Amino acid sequence: MLIDAHCHVWRIGENDCRWPGRDLAVIHRDFGLDDLRAAGGPDGVVLVQSQPSARDTAWLLEVAESDPLVLGVVGWADLAAPDAVEAILALAGNARLKGLRPMLQDLEDDWILSPAVAPAIAAIVEAGLAFDALVRPRHLPALLTLVRRWQDLRVVIDHGGKPTIGEGVMHPWRDDIAALAAEPGVFCKLSGLLTEAGDTPTAQALAPYVAHLLEAFGAERLMWGGDWPVLNLAGDYAGWRRMCEAWVPPDRRAALFGETARRFYRL
């Protein structure tokens, strides 16, 4: 069973959808699950929030209720809000919600370590939810501190931590990823890398980064994601899947393309 651990849907101008803008013409339109099916989609998906909005999360849960393709939802909550704990526990009452993603890539490097956020992290742990870390390489040291501080927090690093593939830079991303992979509660997504490759979204450009992720996490803690439809900015769904299959030994594909996501997200 092919499980895509990272997909998006959106309706431009609805459910607080303000991204993508018109500057990203390829993906500036509505995308739904039938579009994913038409692209050669998987047997099951984890829908991930694309807007920092409670309304977007509520809508994703409605989509999940109406379509059996959706195995789980990773939503959003304002972790620094005064009512964050209550909001998180209320969301966790919906069995379709599997995790939360605060979109750290646009926040200060150490925002997640703020004392104001600590009650929300405790609530995520209490509720048994996963934590999707949408980060850039500059956030990885703070993420490591978070993981060591909250050892019961189940963390998955989205898009391999967004290495700067387009510039051919490996360090310090390489060492920071290795340090995080040494923590047994940390998982990672093999997703979103084509759009980090700049003008050269090729297998050759991605290969050393993917090799490091496979070495660091193994297929047992690495899960495949399409990052569709953002993927359309740099490639296509079937091509990305074929590219990743070529990197993974046949005996490890069942884990990377399904079993790891099922186990991590408790699907």
Description:
The protein is of the alpha/beta class and 267 residues long. It has one domain: Metal-dependent hydrolases (TIM Barrel), CATH 3.20.20. Helices cover 36% and strands 13% of the residues. The protein is built from nine helices and eight strands. The protein has helices spanning 33-38, 54-66, 84-92, 118-127, 140-149, 173-181, 203-217, 237-247, 253-265; strands at 3-7, 44-48, 70-75, 97-100, 130-133, 154-157, 186-190, 222-224. An eight-stranded parallel beta sheet has the order 1-2-3-4-5-6-7-8. Residues 3-267 form the Amidohydrolase-related domain. Belongs to the metallo-dependent hydrolases superfamily. GO terms for molecular function: hydrolase activity.
Short account of what is shown:
The chain is an alpha/beta fold.
Which labels suit this protein?
267 residues, eight-stranded parallel beta sheet, 9 helices, globular, alpha/beta, TIM Barrel
The description of the largest β-sheet is: 8 strands, parallel
**In terms of structural class, how would the helical and strand content be classed?**
alpha/beta
Q: How many whole angstroms does the radius of gyration measure?
A: 17 Å
Distance between the termini: 13 Å
Number of domains: 1
CATH superfamily: Metal-dependent hydrolases
Please tell me the overall pLDDT: 97
- The oligomerization state is single chain
CATH architecture: Alpha-Beta Barrel
Low-confidence stretches: none
| Fraction in beta strands | 5-15%
Bulk shape: globular
- Briefly, what CATH class? Alpha Beta
Helices and strands, in order, run as: EHEHEHEHEHEHEHEHH
Percent helix among the residues? 25-40%
Number of helices: 9
| Main sheet strand line-up | 1-2-3-4-5-6-7-8
Q: Quick one: how many beta strands? A: 8
CATH topology: TIM Barrel
Domain Amidohydrolase-related: 3-267
Pfam family, one: Amidohydro_2
Keywords: Hydrolase
GO molecular function: hydrolase activity
